[in-house]
Write a structure and sequence with these properties.
Helix 2 packs antiparallel against helix 3 and helix 4 packs antiparallel against helix 5. The termini are far apart. The chain has five helices and eight strands. The longest helix has about 70 residues. A hairpin with a 4-residue loop joins strand 6 and strand 7. The strands form two sheets. It has a five-stranded mixed sheet, with helices on one face. By secondary structure, the protein is α+β, with helices and mostly antiparallel strands.
């Protein structure tokens, strides 16, 4: 016996099946949309929490470094030996340069990339109060580096600047500083520092010489000095993480 299905009933069943599939598809799409939106909210919440935690880390590190800087400064004020006082002063300047990076991050509300142009300007302003006889400039586009690169590079630049500042005390010459930092390629970062006055390498303190060598190794950098007047120092850095750059 052959069961005959009316033609209209077949169309109705097909329509019902299609409608059910459409409802199921819409339900699935709505489910995945709601779940993805919830995940995005959770990720956003975690991102905000991490940002707050990193900001707190910057805050505490900066405070600890400033405390150590103040302790060294107090100690050096009571040291009569000139050589020992200079060693303590060097420690003060190095701690200050590291604290400046964390302070700079807190002021700008950033927890990752360091704006090296703004940092160099802040560093120069902290080293000496510019007068009519002294001049400084930072000629570069904004370049953002990670902390693992910014801290040793900041220490290296600070050490070279302090050599120039200390040498100025024995040479009655106005201080002139010019810093530039450019991206040479994906694997090289070029930094140029023009300093006047600047001491001969043979007269550098042993601590400065060793620290500069260690920082160059850490950054996988090469340093070249042109001894014309004004002195110009070239750094080619191969160990860095570029987070952001604006040309």
């Amino acid at each position: 016996m052959i069961l005959l299905i009316p033609y209209d009933l077949g169309i109705l069943n097909l329509t019902t099946i299609v409608a059910c599939l459409l409802v199921l598809s819409c339900s699935l799409l709505l489910f995945f949309f709601v779940r993805n939106r919830q995940r995005r909210r959770e990720l956003l919440h975690k991102t905000r929490e991490n940002k707050v935690l990193l900001s707190e880390v910057h805050h505490r590190v900066r405070n600890n470094l400033q405390l150590m800087y103040s302790l060294l400064r107090l100690q050096s004020a009571h040291v009569e030996n000139l050589e020992a006082r200079q060693i303590l002063k060097g420690g003060e300047y190095r701690l200050r340069s590291m604290a400046l990076i964390h302070e700079h991050q807190l002021r700008r509300g950033r927890v990752t990339g360091v704006d090296m142009k703004a940092f160099f300007q802040h560093l120069l302003a902290s080293i000496f109060d510019l007068s009519r006889q002294n001049s400084s400039s930072v000629k570069m586009s904004p370049v953002f580096l990670d902390l693992d690169t910014a801290i040793p590079l900041g220490l290296l630049i600070n050490e070279l600047l302090q050599l120039s500042v200390n040498h100025m005390q024995s040479v009655p010459t106005p201080l002139s500083i010019e810093i530039s930092l450019n991206i040479a390629s994906a694997k090289a970062l070029d930094c140029s520092i023009q300093l006047s006055p600047f001491p001969l390498q043979s007269s550098w303190p042993e601590v400065s010489r060793q620290l500069i060598d260690l920082l160059l190794i850490q950054l996988e950098a090469r340093m070249k000095i042109e001894w014309n007047d004004p002195r110009r120092i070239y750094l080619s850095i191969h160990e860095f993480a570029l987070l952001h750059s604006i040309e």
